Amino acid sequence: MSVASIFPKLERLLPYVSKPIQYVGGEIGSVTKDWEATAVRWALMYPDTYEVGLPNQGIQILYEVLNGIPDVLAERTYAVRLDLEALMRQHGVPQFTHDSHRPVGAFDLFGVSFSTELGFTNLLTALDLAGIPLASEDRGEEHPIVVIGGHAAFNPEPIADFIDAVVLGDGEEAVTEITDLVRAWKAAGRPGGRDGLLLELAGTGRVYVPRFYDVEYAPEGPLRRVVPNRAGVPSRVRKYTTTDLDAWPYPRQPVVPLAETVHERYAVEIFRGCTRGCRFCQAGMITRPVRERSITAIGDMVERGLTNSGFCEVGLLSLSSADHSEINEICSGLSDRYAGTNVSLSLPSTRVDAFNITLAEQLARNGRRTGLTFAPEGGSERIRKVINKTVSEDDLIRTVATAYAEGWRQVKLYFMCGLPTETDEDVVQIARLAHAVIRAGRAAAGSKDIRATVSIGAFIPKPHTPFQWAAAADPAVVDHRIGLLKQVINSDRSLGRAIGIRYSDGEPGVVEGLLARGDRRVGAVVRRVWEEGGRFDGWSEHFSFARWQKAAQEVLGPWGIDLAWYTTREREEREILPWDHLDAGLDRQWLWREWQDALAETEQDDCRWAGCTECGVCPSQDVTIEMGPTGRRLLPL
Amino acid sequence: MGGKRRQPASDQPPVVQRLRVRYGKRGRMRFASHRDFARALERAIVRAAIPIAYSQGFSPHPKISYASAAPTGVSSLAEYLELGLRERMVPSQVARALDAALPVGFEVLEVAEAGQGSLADRIDSSVWTVEVPGLSERLAAVAVERFCAAERICVERMTKRGLRVLDVRGPVVRLAVSAPADAAPYGVEGLPCAILDLVVRQVTPTVRPDDVLTGLRAVADLEVFEAPRATRLAQGMLTAEGEIVDPLAADRGMACAGALSA
Ligand code: SF4
Prior knowledge:
The complex is a heterodimer.
Chain A: H1 7-13, E1 40-46, H2 50-53, H3 57-67, E2 72-78, H4 82-91, E3 109-113, H5 120-130, E4 145-149, E5 165-167, H6 172-187, H7 193-203, E6 207-208, E7 213-217, E8 223-228, E9 237-238, E10 266-269, E11 271-272, H8 282-286, E12 291-292, H9 295-309, E13 313-317, H10 327-337, E14 344-346, H11 357-365, E15 372-377, H12 381-387, H13 393-405, E16 410-417, H14 424-445, E17 451-458, H15 475-489, H16 493-497, E18 499-503, H17 506-516, H18 523-531, H19 545-556, H20 563-567, E19 582-583, H21 588-599, H22 607-610, H23 617-621
Parallel strand pairs in A: 1-2, 1-3, 3-4, 4-5, 9-19, 10-13, 13-14, 15-16, 16-17, 17-18
Antiparallel strand pairs in A: 5-6, 7-8, 11-12
Chain B: E1 17-25, H1 34-47, E2 64-66, E3 75-85, H2 91-101, E4 106-113, E5 125-133, H3 137-149, E6 154-159, E7 162-167, E8 172-177, E9 193-201, H4 209-220, E10 229-238, E11 244-245, H5 249-252
Parallel strand pairs in B: 3-10
Antiparallel strand pairs in B: 1-3, 1-4, 2-3, 5-9, 5-10, 6-7, 8-9, 10-11
The structure holds iron/sulfur cluster.
């Protein structure tokens, strides 16, 4: 049975919505395939608007990997804006894919990638618009299997009721394996129906099917146990780790947006994983170990990516790009190759200690010198020991001064507030640091015309990190400290004028904290908020804290718990955490030791250079660190 | 951006050839805004390896200048722009390469080497065809007659700078109900669909086809109909005889005036 395009219906609504181009598809790099000619069909979603979702690397990679299989179809869908959502409901237009405008409900699988918990309510909108029952248990054989992935899927419990399956970790091999199982299941006449397929997926040990686990709670609030409720389902589910990145050179043909998006560039992941060991950093912890892409593979990807896309900017992405073993060679090689063209290079965020003059010069060579970003995260040396972001104040000031001397006029510094053990004094140190940076910068640049932006956000404890047991700071404390910081920065008029301060409201952080460490009881809160109109919680213009507070009170009250129980409560070592049955490869004891070391202000080394610290990932995933140097160089094109 | 103050003056090769391009946006690409098209074009130029020249300075921009662009949601077969190249190219080759590199729906229709004068000086009017689903031909005829009989018709439009009042009658040179098409062109089933021929002088602020329709609705007390679908058929100079002169005609070295119906 073929599936008709809903475009004629959609087309009549587009004159009435903002930025209609985002819904029409037809981008360079987008793929259309004959429905009938394919055996397994995926709708892939990034649960935010097109402008935010399109550049997402995860979706772009999976889109290409899946469409690269001849009998597999993958199409993309994004969260529709509120104006179109209202019109779609009024006119009965379902959630659609952008490539061929097919209804999402007609696909075999609906894959959603979450980078942040604040996208959870958008999942419900998409399911509802697609005509897929919100609750997993209400779905029948005719509905797609709803699979989620991405960093926020490492604790999927708050949305466990709404999803069928979860993949932890890297998606490349995961989607291929799932596709194979679905293909075989369909070919065999769908044995066992929907549950039959889910059971097979769960049986791999690497796909988590929440419905196959029962959760019990102790009267005081915490979990009592999480147990499989049928045979053939493992008690713990392991993550996927893609190795040999050179063998996965995606994206090759990125989808080039027609609407303006948040990143207009060809992005290449230069390595995956990070073992710096920053204790707050979920991304670093769940993506261990480090796997580098080689300098030559990177060069080839950039060449092909630029030719195929027509982009003029190359983003060298990773969690800490300056840490690549051949970063200087990569940057200078690419700068040489593209000298005289209008291609520019960028590194999204740079570690203070890995940044150096060579790198600065290479990045500066091709014209556009976008702002430099450093993330010391903590203001005082003491707190930097707690979070294991070790960099000395002198190094920091010297590095930033180097950047100013090399011609940058604007440097961004990222910090967090509300870290474990933090005092007012730790935050006030940020002001002193910023002052010192401006003073040193003025001297180095020989000019008063330099600026720094201090960006400060509330720390949110995340699962699978040493701080998963920590109490988040009360939002009032965070607000007080940020106020204090502003006051001290501006206490010196001359220096203060050169420093901009950016901070985010504490309230979305509270909700992110609730969702990040929530259990299945939080699912009803998510649903209630969504029913009350909650959409796009990551957008300040749509976010309503009052709505979340009210729903949390109503839903959690009968359990004898509240928002604060999830956010500002410190957990004990033995407490069963809602994600303990999800195995990111990290040894729980190692995480706990790291937490104790944090409290003792003891630092931990990076295993890339100082030897294995036994976090557990390599043996449990049967992988090793993959890194250079390769000694190879980029030759001129 | 700053940096070791490089000497930008010597960085970029100069323009050695200027090409004028007539292009269209059709089908679903009509929903592109002018900025969306501009980004798509810049990328197509890179993909097609057209030797575009760049402006001087620390953040160089490709040398592309646009004549007035059709609004978002409106199709066109007659948009114009000019490219500055740093190497000479054969215009027809540029046309082919660029057309192939653009997303389907954006079409390069003609490329000619620029002659004297500027493109803007050769355009003062547009020819449109407007399909209005929900409007019967009979009602359309009545409304058009009233519209043409009026001296001024003021309508309000929300712009970025707030609500503005425009006279939509003054700039309209011609408005008529077109001969009926064989099928409802918009494909909205069960609805009548009037087709209007429209010639509008380009004034500031621009009077667009949907402004004219708002005016039409106001003078004839019409119900709100489905979103109309407008297509720009031609742009150019309006002659005393009411014909439109193709702005690239002079560049082609041929004195040929495009017919009103294009
Ligand atoms: S197991 Fe050892 S080498 Fe592997 S990531 Fe953990 S600390 Fe590093």
